[in-house]
Automatic annotation (TrEMBL):
Residues 499-534 form the EF-hand domain. Residues 33-61 are annotated as: Disordered. The lineage of its organism: Eukaryota, Metazoa, Chordata, Craniata, Vertebrata. Residues 234-465 form the Ras-GEF domain. Belongs to the RASGRP family. This is EF-hand domain-containing protein. Residues 82-205 form the N-terminal Ras-GEF domain. Keywords: Calcium, Guanine-nucleotide releasing factor, Metal-binding, Zinc, Zinc-finger. PANTHER family: GUANINE NUCLEOTIDE EXCHANGE FACTOR, RAS GUANYL-RELEASING PROTEIN 4. It comes from the Eukaryota. GO terms for cellular component: plasma membrane. Pfam families: RasGEF. One of its GO terms (biological process) is Ras protein signal transduction. It comes from Chiloscyllium punctatum. GO terms for molecular function: calcium ion binding; guanyl-nucleotide exchange factor activity; zinc ion binding.
Amino acid sequence: ITAQLQTERLTQVRDFPPGGQWREYRAGRCERDRKAGRTVSRKSRHEYQSSQGSKAIQRQCRRRMTCPSPAEISKAKAIMSMPQLSKALSLDELILKCVQSFDTEGCLRCSGETVNVTLMMHSWIIPSSEFAQKLLLLYRDAGGEKRDQIRVKICHFVRYWIARYPIVFTVDSKLEDVMSQFWQLARNEGEESHCQLIDTSNIHMHEWTWKYTQHAISSNNKKRKVSLLFDHLEPTELAEHLSYLEFKSFCQLTYLDYRSYMVSGCVRENPALEHSVSLVNGISQWVQLMILNRPTAAQRAEVFTKFIHVAQKLRLLQNFNTLMAVIGGLCHSAISRLKETSSYLSQDVTKTLNEMTELLSSCSNYSNYRRVFSECTGFKIPILGVHLKDLVSLNEALPDYIEDKKINLNKLQQLYSRILELIQIQGSTPPFEANKDLVHLLTLSLDLYYTEDEIYELSYAKEPKTHRTVSVPPCKPPVVVDWASGVAPKLDAVTVSKHVQQMVDSVFKNYDHDQDGYISQVEFEKIAVSFPFSFFVLDKER
């Protein structure tokens, strides 16, 4: 921003010289024209400023389209105001700087920026087990008059690491071994207080997953009653429950998952990220199948319109990831080729679809989405693929080491600020509550998976190829993020059985009113609509 403002100022100074320098400017310009063999056309000062003024207006018009919004300027100022780390330090220098950031009582003596960047991002440089080993050696070899002070500061630094980033201690067996050695060393030295500070035996999963379960399903004393039938569900209810599933999946991602994707470039062997991708792809495919499940074009258009209304509610909820999935499903070629279905869509529906595809377009590196997302406050869910690509680009663009093999702290801080922004979103509170039974139904519905060939086969079965043309409003398909297309749900038999049992229990709880263990055939068929093409192989008695 500063560079752009400086460029504009220099341009204005160059194009509009002060009055005292006007003759010198014009004489110099004419002399250059003569040397270049160009015809000299002398203009009065009034003519010159008039012509240049019109150009300036044109420039301002062009710049207005690329000028950052107030929200983007505020965000840039916030980043610039963050305390900057040194340009480069060796690993030993960085560790010592972090240790010295604590006093003997365990309080930070300055901003915790350096400490947090180091603890979260050091695994980009060395494994966490080696990082802990260096702390162990620093503790063991501490000497001199300030030996006790240095040791207690090291232990407080480790305690801070355990308290703020506990997940790494639960997934890294080598780190666990080093911490056991560290604890034994402190015990042999007779430092029981140090042992308590570096003790990792009390770390349990619930200590760092509390935020994932705090957004609970509505309690029994305030039960929310909703229908389990797709045709009876309001777009708001559907959008809220899809957002519940999306946010629950998003909250399971940690900084280690982001690092894994940046290093490998894929979601393999990354269960949390793979589940998030599968959910998005499952929603997109479910939208397609729900439309193709209807026998007539008018009915398919009705379902299409309902999902447009769901998309509008998702936009209001600021859930851009599920919005991308729904719009991607509606604009899939297996759906967009249904010309007869499209002919039943209203102009308002087509207009809304175009607006949504424009918002999610990849043009100018998703500039429309980035602008809107930066202006959102409170609860919001980002398009994860866009931000992951940003992390990958930044990781590849900046080197890990500079200045004689010293760590590039600028790179670590930039990666840290972007990952921290995603992690902080997980702490927001959703503006809705979910119904457990509907969540069970949707969870199993999204477990379904069909190949692209199977979906196209269904599409051509509904509307075969024909030479008859149907006039339909133009609909520009979106260029949506395709960072992990093709990732399908990979659920084991135990998980599938669990989801099935939960769904069956929810259905019978809501529709077996006389509690005789049976529901009617009509109710069964209505519920089966949420599972398109899953029951056609069963006879009626089953």
